[in-house]
Design goal:
alpha+beta; five-stranded antiparallel β-sheet; 5 strands; 39% helix
Length: 193
């Protein structure tokens, strides 16, 4: 019986080494899974920050009359550090360190998709926005558009595309938004071909 025990002395050592290797593999795998999850969360955060910056630029663009008066300079960029002051470009500092983290471009510039003249019969004189659009139809030869029954305004549909790029992670997000705007016929003539 003593000879049997003598033969089994190394078996305990081998089993212990196998268990140590398995525990090491488990530790390395769990570390890699945790690191991968952390990268995924960081990428999602960068994507969300880029999306918010792009949406902010779109909201800024659609809230100004420069959208239909001069589409190539909707966003005025006075910051030389932000893409050299290029028009339709906005730099956003996300983390508060006074360095731009995300660059948003309206690329291509906002474009007019379609216009439709508003007829005088569609104008409600009780609405203040409509009052500036109405013209007298009796002056057919003195006012442009009066003979056709058109008012001084038109409905237009615009498409605004903002592309946001995170300078550190390379995350990129594109927001496309369409909107309808009532504009003067003079603005339509220059901005909508």
């Amino acid at each position: 019986m003593k000879t049997m025990l003598h033969r089994q002395r190394g078996a305990t050592l081998i089993v212990a080494l196998i268990m140590l290797v398995l525990l090491t593999l488990f530790a390395v795998t769990s570390f890699n899974l945790g690191t991968g999850s952390l990268h995924t969360v960081g990428n999602a955060q960068s994507r969300n920050e880029a999306m918010a910056a792009a949406q902010q630029a779109v909201e800024e663009a659609v809230s100004t009359t420069r959208l239909f008066q001069s589409p190539s300079t909707v966003i005025i960029n006075g910051d030389a550090e932000c893409e050299g002051g290029a028009p339709n470009t906005k730099c956003v500092d996300v983390n508060g360190d006074d360095n731009p983290d995300i660059t948003v471009r309206l690329d291509p510039p906002p474009v007019c998709i379609i216009t439709r003249p508003i007829l005088n019969s569609e104008i409600d004189p009780n609405i203040s926005n409509d009052a500036g659009c109405s013209i007298q139809t009796g002056q057919a030869f003195a006012v442009a558009g009066a003979a056709t029954g058109n008012s001084l305004c038109a409905d237009s549909v615009w498409e605004v595309i903002a592309v946001a790029t995170d300078s550190q992670t390379g995350a990129q997000y594109t927001v496309t938004q369409g909107l309808g705007v009532r504009v003067a016929n003079d603005d339509i003539a220059s901005a909508c071909p």
